[in-house]
Design brief:
The chain is α+β, with helices and mostly antiparallel strands. The protein has 2 domains: 1-31; 32-100, Alpha-Beta Plaits (2-Layer Sandwich), CATH 3.30.70.1280. It contains 2 helices and 4 strands. It has helices at residues 2-31, 76-87, and strands at 33-39, 58-63, 67-72, 94-98. The chain has a 4-stranded antiparallel sheet. A hairpin with a 3-residue loop joins strand 2 and strand 3 (67-72). The longest helix has 30 residues, at 2-31.
Length: 100
Amino acid sequence: MVTILAIIFGFLLIFAIVRVIQIKMGVTKRFGYHYTITMHYGLKLPDLIKNDNLRGKIKIISATDNTCKVQSQINDTELKTTLMKDYGLDSTQVQVENTQ
């Protein structure tokens, strides 16, 4: 009897863990990943809300003069490439880090 209960408990535990992972993945797919965008060498962060290439793809969570946290469904490489192209930056002037 104890063995059967232990097996049932084990299955329920495994199911719960798998379900939590599935829910976490679903939330990430819908809302995106969190990134920190940092401008270097004294550069100020451009107004990302006005950027046509990023409109609808990012949500600004917080911002300062040279750093902001965004939520985005596009990956960090695409985000950095878009910023470099749209604002004439090189790879040392802007940094995009996954903060999730």
